[in-house]
UniProtKB/TrEMBL annotation:
InterPro entries: Spore_0_M. Pfam families: Spo0M (PF07070). This is Sporulation-control protein. PANTHER family: SPORULATION-CONTROL PROTEIN SPO0M (PTHR40053).
Length: 305
């Protein structure tokens, strides 16, 4: 028994914690349901407390920036007996304005089991934050038009999350790439769409601000037809549109942080100037440049350890 206690203090045969969630993918604003399971080890141990951290990781050029979104404390101390199983319910309503998961953005629940006089135990549970239903319909409509989302999509510049799509059929040859940023409101979605049109100078960037109301977003075929017409007009009359990302952001920044559906609004609220400067410094060191609107989108392909 003495040997078992000694080994438990070193983490061998000690108590463990496991956060069990009902699934791995969630839409922003959705409620997560699960349970927190504490499993006793070979000997009885005192549990000081349990903390569950919900964190977001932004992958920069040289490092990963981690931010604590919310902490869920279970600070009532208790004794876990050998091989005992203790289960606590867990629920959490996700913020509605989270950045969506992508190659440079990821989310994890990290559970900390604080064991008295022993090595603590941790549990990591990554989750994927998907687009809310109305934005998913925009993705579906673009897919119907032959667009596929690029790996580099969903980058974040501290203000806006950008979505990038490549044409594969209908508009292939007419445009090189379609990009957009979005602000989701109760009655619809504001979008700034950019299409890169091939030209003798390389490409011409045409930007157009549009608004899709909920009634249109509910109609799959009509939404697809509307987006098809919008893109076709941008290709045929590029000089008719003169919008830019900076103006789009400043038109809505007063409502950005308090809007319930601003994609990136949550992150824009906690990203400090110092953090943005670090991100830019890392990115520029890699030879990247800010875009013509003065907003920078960084990306990274590293994996989280």
């Amino acid at each position: 028994m003495v040997f078992k206690k000694f080994m438990a203090k070193l983490g061998k045969g000690g108590a463990k914690v496991d956060l069990i969630l009902d699934k791995e993918e969630y839409a922003s604003g959705e409620t997560i349901h699960g349970e927190l399971m504490i499993l006793g080890g070979a000997v009885a141990q005192e549990i000081n407390k349990i903390d569950i951290d919900f964190v977001v990781q932004l992958h920069g050029k040289e490092q990963i920036f981690t931010h604590l979104i919310e902490r869920f404390p279970f600070h009532e101390a208790f004794t876990i007996q050998p091989e005992e199983r203790k289960v606590l319910p867990f629920t959490y309503s996700l913020p509605t304005n989270l950045l969506l998961s992508g190659h440079a953005i990821s989310y994890t629940f990290i559970t900390h089991l604080d064991i008295a006089e022993a090595i603590d135990h941790k549990d990591h549970d990554p989750v994927i934050i998907q687009a809310p239903p109305r934005l998913k319909r925009v993705f579906a409509a673009l897919s119907e038009l032959g667009f596929t989302e690029k790996y580099s999509s969903r980058s974040f510049d501290g203000h806006l999350q950008e979505f990038e799509f490549a044409p594969t059929s209908l508009f292939c040859g007419d445009i090189k790439e379609l990009e957009f940023v979005a602000k989701i409101e109760d009655e619809g979605i504001h979008m700034l769409i950019e299409v890169d049109i091939p030209s003798f100078m390389g490409k011409k960037e045409v930007k157009r601000e549009i608004y899709l109301d909920n009634s249109l977003l509910e109609q799959g075929s009509e939404l697809t037809d509307q987006l098809k017409q919008i893109i076709a007009e941008m290709i045929s009359s590029p000089l008719s549109f003169a919008h830019d990302k900076k103006t789009f952001y400043h038109n809505y920044h007063q409502k950005w942080s308090r809007s319930t559906g601003a994609i990136g609004g949550f992150a824009a609220g906690w990203l400090a100037t110092e953090l943005l400067e670090d991100l830019f410094e890392d990115a520029f060191a890699d030879g990247s440049e800010a875009d013509e609107d003065g907003l920078f989108a960084f990306s990274e392909e590293e994996e989280i350890d």
